[in-house]
Specification:
Layout lengths: L7 H9 L3 H8 L3 H6 L9 E4 L3 E5 L2 E5 L9 E7 L7 E5 L5 H12 L3 E5 L5 H14 L2 E8 L6 H9 L1 E9 L1
Parallel strand pairs: 1-6, 6-7, 7-8
Antiparallel strand pairs: 1-2, 2-3, 3-4, 4-5
Helix pairs in contact: 4-5, 5-6
Organism: Caenorhabditis latens
InterPro entries: F-box_dom
Protein name: F-box domain-containing protein
């Protein structure tokens, strides 16, 4: 029997029992499947950007690598309460840039990026992420930026157009 022919309540129940990595991989199967992913309750997910793209649900975090080059898969490390070592290693089958994966997650899960923390991210990655962020949403809760990026005109324009609702920290 085909999955999309099940009653909507059954589909919703199945999706709610999948982890974010399975939901991402499932959303790549078809556009129709991608439109069903929010039935899993993805609006309760918290998405942060640090040296990983982090999806948090309750006490579990899915740390998605931000690869430098395009490859056929992206590694995901799962942790509980941010404790190391990783509990599990998963894969997302993605063959585009990491920034396109970020956009895909924000659009399919229909949840905002809540925090950008640049302390462990290169300046080029940060600027690229900020350009995407300003195109996808108009506000963010928390942002941590290095002082040297404050002078970059492109980043300054993004910050001026992005409403930071809780905390902006500029570090030396």
């Amino acid at each position: 029997m085909k999955f999309l022919r099940f009653p909507m309540l059954v589909i919703k129940d199945v999706l709610k029992n999948l982890d974010p990595v399975d939901l991402i991989n499932l959303s790549l199967a078809s556009k129709k499947m991608g439109h069903l992913i929010p039935l899993a309750g993805t609006d309760r997910f918290k998405v942060d950007l640090e040296h990983f793209l982090i999806i948090s649900i309750n006490d579990k975090q899915y740390n998605i690598e931000l690869p430098k080059n395009v490859s056929s898969q992206v590694n995901v490390m799962t942790t509980i309460d941010n404790e190391w070592p990783a509990r599990d290693w998963l894969k997302i089958y993605w063959n585009k840039k990491w920034t396109e994966l970020l956009v895909h997650i924000l659009r399919v899960f229909k949840c905002p990026l809540t925090t950008v923390n640049s302390k462990s991210m290169g300046n080029a990655k940060l600027i690229e992420a900020m350009q995407i962020l300003s195109a996808e949403q108009c506000e963010i809760k928390k942002m941590y930026l290095p002082q040297d990026l404050q002078k970059k005109k492109s980043l300054r324009n993004i910050i001026e157009n992005l409403n930071i609702t809780e905390r902006l920290i500029i570090t030396r």
